[in-house]
Write a structure and sequence with these properties.
This protein has 281 residues and is mostly beta strands. It has one helix spanning 6-24, and strands spanning 65-78, 81-87, 90-97, 100-106, 109-114, 118-123, 126-135, 143-152, 165-177, 180-189, 202-212, 220-231, 239-251, 254-263, 271-280. The protein has a twelve-stranded antiparallel β-barrel with strand order 1-3-4-7-8-9-10-11-12-13-14-15. A hairpin with a 7-residue loop joins strand 11 (202-212) and strand 12. The longest helix has 19 residues, at 6-24. The chain is globular. The relative contact order is 0.18.
């Protein structure tokens, strides 16, 4: 039987270890507060953790603030019931130092409409997190980072996990060939007990290939991605999805994006789509 305290304890220990290491070591790159890109320097533009599922290994930079928000819709059909779900996924990021940032993430407000069941709405849970950029990429060596999140049950009962959910990911980015890039995440989480009363870890993965649009190399990119979860419990279903989308930089500090995803397994949501905007200060 699993110890229900293992997840949060491991999560907090990992966060403290990362913070201590980065605080004691020299930064991986410049910590000059005024070292911000000129307004027309798209090569030094913001890097976001959306619209793909794969999180970048980069951080926002010392004393920089970044908002990534969106409107999202999903539809699923199961056992004769069709569920429509609307939310506003939002991520707030702030750089403590060049290689270290703190994060606050939530779907914010959700509306769920089920056929024959009416409509419910309410607030969703919050997740507090920390991301650390570990190494820059060079040649065939990827850029690496680590991300730790702790979900807490702050939402309304209908949209809350009603328990603490720790999550840990290793983040990697490669320049594959030419302008083709690959972002990969691997990690694990420990969701709260399901309807059957089981609590188990899940392996998390995502892999996204992205490429810029010719003629707008530093401003417009498209991507395709596979992502999913594999439970450590043999009787629990896998979830796998295919995701694609695009992101366009309006300025070096402002990005618009869109995505569409389809579930590949019965346990995954049928379709998902969304529009987003990201802004850095």
């Amino acid at each position: 039987m699993e110890n229900s305290n293992t997840g949060p304890g491991l999560f907090l220990a990992t966060v403290l270890a990362i913070t201590a290491t980065l605080g004691a070591a020299p930064p991986a790159y410049s910590e000059t507060f005024d070292n911000h890109p000129p307004r027309d320097d798209f090569a030094a533009a913001l890097e976001t953790d959306r619209p793909d599922i794969s999180e970048a290994s980069s951080t926002v930079g010392r004393h920089r603030f970044q908002l990534e928000t969106s409107v999202a819709y999903s539809r699923d059909h199961d056992s004769g019931t069709t569920t429509h779900f609307y939310s506003a996924p939002t991520l707030l990021r702030f750089g403590i130092s060049e290689p270290l940032e703190v994060r606050l993430e939530s779907d914010m407000f959700a509306v769920q409409r089920e056929s024959g069941m009416g409509t419910t709405h309410g607030l969703t849970d919050l997740a507090f997190g920390m991301k650390a950029h570990l190494t820059d990429g060079s040649g065939g060596i990827p850029s690496l980072g680590v991300l730790a999140h702790l979900g807490v049950p702050t939402g309304n009962d209908e949209f809350s996990a009603n328990g603490v959910e720790p999550e840990l990911k290793i983040l990697a980015d490669w320049d594959v060939v030419g302008d083709l890039a690959l972002g990969m995440n691997v990690g694990a989480d420990i969701p709260v007990r399901d309807a059957a009363g089981d609590k188990f870890a899940r392996f998390l993965y995502s892999a996204a290939f992205s490429h810029p649009i010719p003629g707008l190399r530093d401003r417009w990119r498209v991507f395709v991605e596979a992502a999913g979860t594999v439970p450590a419990h043999a009787d629990k279903p896998d979830t796998h999805i295919f995701n694609t989308g695009t992101a366009l930089l309006i300025t070096p500090n402002l990005q618009l994006d869109a995505f569409a995803a389809v579930g590949l397994t019965a346990a995954a949501e049928g379709i998902q789509t969304g529009l987003g905007i990201s802004w850095r200060r």
